[in-house]
Each structure stands twice: as structure tokens, then as C-alpha cells.
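Researcher: Please translate sequence to C-alpha cells.
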Amino acid sequence: MKPKENQPGTPPFRWGNIKQFAHVILLALCLFIPLLLLSCGDDIVDPPIITDSTPPAPITDLVVADTSTTTATLVWTTVGDDSTTGQAAAYDIRYSLSEITDSNWTAATQCTGEPSPKEPGEIDTFTVTGLEPATVYYFAVKTLDEANNSSTISNVPSQMTTPSHYITWEGTYGDCDDVFCNSVVIGSDGGYVVSGSISESWSDACIFKVDEYGNEMWRKTYGGSLGEYMRHLINTPDGGYLLAGEGGLTDPIDDTLSIYLIKTDAYGDLGWETRYEILPTTSVDEINLAHGGGYIVAGGGCNEHYYDPHCYAFIMKLTDLGDIEWMKPLDDTLDAYGYNTRSILPTPDGGYLLLDLELRLVKTDGLGNIVWEKDISDKITIGTWCWGWEMESCGNDEYIIVGGIIPNDSERDALLVKIDGEGNILWFKNYGGDFYELGYDIVMVADGFVFTGRTQIRSESRYSDVYLVKTDLDGNLLWENIYGWEWYDDAWCIQVAPDGGFIVSGAQGLGPGSGQFYVIKTDPRGEL
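Model: Translation complete:
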């Protein structure tokens, strides 16, 4: 049978025709879809783009934990990738010979080999290398995340690298009838400045400067025909010095005292001097820089004479020129113990904290109004009687007090008491041997406390020696050293020297009616 032939008008079926049709449809789609997209305009929604714009938080607790002659070890708490959460990506650690700020950040030297950040809240550490000996460096850190967002600059601690050698010496100055040396500060242009009183017939205020090797550079005396006794010396913001004490004493039974302040320039030349008679007999115990400028004074006064039992303590605010802004009594009942105020410090809340000889604490606001007062002597359970001589800040609104205690009938020991900002005792420890030890002044260092005072290592009361003690941050004894010659030697003040050693000032008795200023410069272990 023959196959059917195609009917007239019906094209033959071919696969090639289908392919051509598909090509036409595809071409039409390629032309139509872009036109459709263009016609939609703003109706097209782009997919969201996720960006990281939150930088890490700044580091606020950067410290220089240790130094050598060429290195400094930094320690800080790690922050997060986004503020305080998540793990950051990198650190930018820099150092400089001047304080690091936003404006000079790029000029500071950038370290290499910085560690990768740990999890937030952990402790990170890094050792900066390639430093010069006996040089003060400033350090700062920025934290970066994966999007290269950077934190602001951390706090900027500074520290001197360890010298390749330490300068040590001891010297005596001013042979005269008697001396009373109570303060030493670091010179505004180097060296050390010592203050006290010097007596030939009547006592005069005295200040002198020595270089870093103990060579006397200049000396100045101040006062009139009556006795002037200096009790405290501080550096002032303009590079000069302020001496505080009392004047006008000829007979402590019949005559009166007034507060006597002396302001000098960096060379001891007199800028101004002034006297204050708050009560018939008035004395200053300590002066310090005040909040907002000027000076804050702790002192005491009596209604009649120097040994009047009706005395009270007061706090007084002065301007930069010594004018009184305000004065507040701290004990309206005129109790005798109020006269023995020993120390005054500014507190972080804008107020002040005062220490009394009897270990009474008084907290005031910025205008001298009493916030609270506490007697902490009854909390010291290792002796029959104790007293406080000086108080220094430890940071974090904590304070260290140095003084003395009677642990038994035959001994006197030096005493340390650490307190918080509410006057609560954190710990207390006593130090000394079998005879008589006292603590007069104290400084805090990175790994503990160093205090100075006196020790009577011989049984005869006219002999004493300088006593220098270091403890760790918990008051545990690390070392103690004793210095002195013949007769009596006392040390009333201590400062940390620029090289990390200590400068100590006091007096040395050459025998009855004769004495000298006594100044000691030690290395960081208290050795000569």
C-alpha cells in the first residue's frame, strides 16, 4: 500500500522549524525583560546591604606593669568587637616621648607584633621593646574590628624605663643650733627641693635645692624676728613652691601663733607671703591642691594659747593668691583632739578627706561641709593605743595611712592601715623590732608601699635612726633598711625619685643644741 501524500496547503513537519521558533521567543524575552524592569522604576527593591558601623569600646585600664632598661610591659582588659561584645580583630599599640592625643596619634611610634585580642573581659598583655634606659614614655592602644572600625584612644599611662645605673647618696646641710626638716618634693626643673626650719636664735623658714647628685644649688630663708616653723611643702601648677607652717611663736604658754604661707617661684624667690589668725592660736598641718584651683588647708586653732585644751580643727579654701574663699570648723564642740589634724586629700567626688592624729576620719563635700566622720582607732585590735601621721591616695577611692601603735608596754611599732572611701578598714599591719619604731610618711609604688620614719635600735632614748620599709600591696613586709650616724636621725618625708628610687628628708642631730638637714637618695630597693 502506498503511503499517503501530503494534502494540499499543509506544510511538511520539520524539527528545524521548532528550533527557529524557540530562538525567536528567546530573543523576544531578552529584549522585553530589560524594558519591563525599566518600566518598574522605583518599584524594584534592592536587597539589603549589612554594614558594621559599631566600633570597639575604648580600653580604660591600660597600665605599665613592669619595665626594664629597654622594655615596658603593658597590661589591660580586652574589649569587644562591637563596643563590649564579640571578639575584636586587632590592636594598634603606640608609644611616644610626650602624651598621646587624637591630634598626634599618627606621630607616635607604632609597635609591631601586637597580639590578637582575646575574648572581652580577659586580660591582654604586650611588651614594648627597643626603648631607651631612664626615659619616660607614654603608651596608648586602639582596638580595631574586622570592618576596620577603631576605638577611641585608651587611657595614656606613662612610665620611666629602668636606668642602666642608679644614683644614690646621703648628705647633710645647714649646720646650726637646730633644724626641723619636714618636706621634700621633686624640683620643677629637676633635682630635689627640701623645706623646713633653721634656728640660730629664732627659727626661720628655710627652703633649699640640691641637684640629682645631692649638691646644694641654692638656699633661701624667710621670716621675721619671731619664730617660723614650716610643716609642709608642695609643688604649685606654675612651677613654683608653696610652704605652709606657723609663725609668731616666742613662748608657747604666753604667746600666740598664726598660719604662715610662703609662695615662691622655681628658684625660691618670694612671690607672696601671708598670715592668717583664725583663732588666737592657729596652726596648719597640711596643705594640698584644691578642686578647681587654689589650695585646701587643714589646720587647728585654740581660744587662748598653744596648749589650751579647748581647740578644734578646721578646713580652709584659698585662692591661687592666698585669699580665703571659705573656712569651716570641723568640731563645734571644741574637743581638744580636733586640733591634731594630720592630713587632707581631695577625693574623686569633689570633696575632701581628713585624717586626725587620733585616727579620726572626716569626709566633707567640696565646700567643707561634713558628710560623715569616723573614729577607726577602736577597730585596730593589735595594740593598746594607735595614731595616724600621714595619709596618701591609692587610687580607686582607697587610702593608706601610716602612723604608730603600742602593741605592748615595752614596744612602739610603725602602723599601716588601708581604708576605702567610706572609711572602712580593709587591712592593718604593724612593723618593727624590740624597741621603738614610727612611720611618718608613705608613698605608693606599682607593687606596694614604701614608708619612712624612725627606729630606736639602741636602748638610750637620745639615739634613733632613719627607718625605711617596703611592703607589697597587702601590707606584707618585703624589705626594711636603717640609716644614720651618731645621736638622732629622723626622716619625715619620702617621695619617689624620677629614676624609681626614693628621696628621703629629715634631720640629723650632732649632739645637744646642734643639728643638720639630712637627705638620702636610694635605689628602688632602698639601698645606698
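Researcher: Any highlights?
Model: The first helix runs from residue 15 to 40.
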